[in-house]
Amino acid sequence: MVGTDESTFNSQDIASRGMIVTILWRLEGEPVAEYPMTFTDVAEDKWYYNAIAWAAEKGIVNGYNTLHFGPDDDITREQMVKILYRFATYKRYDLSSRDYLSAFTDSPSEWAMESVQWAVEERIIQGKGFSLLDLQAGVKRCECAAILRRFMSN
Hints:
Layout lengths: L16 H11 L21 H9 L19 H14 L22 H9 L19 H13 L1
Helix pairs in contact: 1-2, 1-3, 3-4
């Protein structure tokens, strides 16, 4: 991760979808996508273009639909976990462990269930108190750093 400028990290700002993908792309050595992407809301002159093109090509990310990715949208906890799960799939990590989330009063969206169960079991994400995972909440940059550290440690 890098700061939002040379001297500022902005730890309390919410991370964007483009930021998360760019971090994973950098971890992989900034590979180049072989094919053009279909997302019309990801301009070629943006800092996240190459990262999103690569991640889409490798199946690490999907958009809201085939034309829209929402690179500047705030990323939710369940969206981040789903992207990490797909990245782990791409890396061929063992994804067999599951927590059935019985300790929490809130539930993930159906499309995120498997990835959230895996992330909780692997302790990549944790509850935020009051038995809540708070999966629809935006991920602060400081939380993003902690989640990524735990992911990389596993």
